[in-house]
């Protein structure tokens, strides 16, 4: 291995829905971080690894920073700030199809408080805009830097969707990483326990198509997971028992659906994803439970992994 091998931690930050998880997935090349068309679904700090001949990037995906209204909101914000402080480089995602707004300014001002940390501005979703709009967006990003007193280490336009400029982004991140050996063995994609990833996949499926406030009210805990005994060696099966927690009885109805139709759909969708993740057929046993006001109760929050 050459002396110039670089390795370290990078983290994408930005308002909800700006494409952080999609970008992580596109760079890692597999579905590890959790994406959703609904905002604020990334809860856990999920790390994806980018292996290259010259470097290893450990991508840390954080939830969006937002105005805290509950204990959970505050914990999420703490988690974000702690993560920022620990990484080698921060990349602020600013979607090209949206104007820079107060939310972005708030966030960039927070990032600017991290002294001496390289910060890259990433113009995301460039496949959605024409060149004129992109130029305007890049000018706005420059202005945002001046306004907030941050000096962008780089400004790079990318599309996670088309893959355009992904390599450039990776190069720019690598350049800013310290020299050092790989932090994780080659082949590892994430250091999250499989249970956490499985829970996230179920949660993602459970949120799909739900149009109310459910994102903050839904938690998934994998209670038990393991290979079923007495299976022929060439036909393994993994049993997974998981609980979907909601805050109120009415939400339980939403998740289960008429005659259990929605819950069956959630089971089918997430099972397919889990089987892809684990590479093994899976028997998935899902239950919906009410944990009253879990977001406001420190004991319940701990039990649910926050
Ligand atoms: N067209 C296009 N859509 C994208 C791109 N990147 C992300 N999206 C879409 O934007 C939406 C949000 O993407 P996410 O990756 O979940 O966003 P996020 O910033 O991680 O969101 P939170 O987890 O809520 O903070 C999804 O519907 C994505 O499919 C892109 O490069 N091009």
UniProtKB/TrEMBL annotation:
Region (G3): 61-64
Amino-acid positions noted as binding GTP in the UniProt annotation, renumbered to this chain: 14-21, 61-65, 124-127
Region (G1): 14-21
Segments of this protein annotated with the region G4: 124-127
Locations listed in the record: Cytoplasm; Cell membrane
Any one Gene Ontology molecular-function term assigned to this protein's record: GTP binding
Family as reported in the entry's similarity comment: Belongs to the TRAFAC class TrmE-Era-EngA-EngB-Septin-like GTPase superfamily. Era GTPase family.
Name listed for the protein in its UniProt record: GTPase Era
């Amino acid at each position: 291995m050459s002396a110039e091998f670089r390795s370290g931690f990078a983290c994408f930050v930005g308002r909800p829905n700006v494409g952080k998880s999609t970008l992580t997935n596109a760079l890692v090349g597999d579905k590890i971080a959790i994406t959703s068309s609904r905002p604020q679904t990334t809860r856990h700090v999920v790390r994806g690894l980018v292996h290259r001949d010259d470097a290893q990037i450990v991508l840390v995906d954080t939830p969006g920073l937002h105005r805290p209204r509950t204990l959970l909101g505050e914990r999420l914000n703490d988690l974000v700030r702690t993560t920022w402080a620990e990484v080698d480089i921060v990349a602020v995602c600013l979607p090209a199809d949206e104007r820079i707004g107060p939310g972005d300014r708030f966030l960039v001002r927070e990032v600017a408080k991290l002294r001496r940390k390289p910060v890259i501005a990433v113009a995301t979703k460039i496949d959605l805009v024409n060149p004129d709009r992109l130029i305007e967006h890049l000018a706005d990003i420059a202005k945002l830097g001046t306004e907030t007193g941050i000096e962008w280490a780089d400004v790079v336009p990318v599309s996670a969707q088309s893959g355009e400029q992904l390599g450039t982004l990776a190069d720019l991140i690598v350049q800013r990483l310290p020299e050092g050996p790989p932090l994780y063995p080659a082949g590892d994609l994430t250091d999250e326990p499989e249970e956490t990833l499985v829970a996230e996949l179920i949660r993602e499926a459970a949120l799909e198509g739900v149009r109310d406030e459910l994102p903050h009210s839904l938690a998934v805990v994998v209670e038990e997971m393991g290979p079923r005994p007495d299976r022929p060696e060439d036909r393994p099966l993994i049993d997974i028992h998981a609980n979907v927690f909601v805050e109120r009885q009415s939400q339980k109805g939403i998740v289960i659906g008429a005659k259990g139709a929605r819950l069956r759909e959630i089971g089918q969708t997430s099972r397919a994803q889990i089987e892809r993740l684990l590479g093994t057929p899976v028997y998935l046993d899902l239950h919906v439970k009410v944990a009253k006001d879990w977001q406001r109760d420190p004991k319940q929050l701990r039990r649910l992994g926050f």
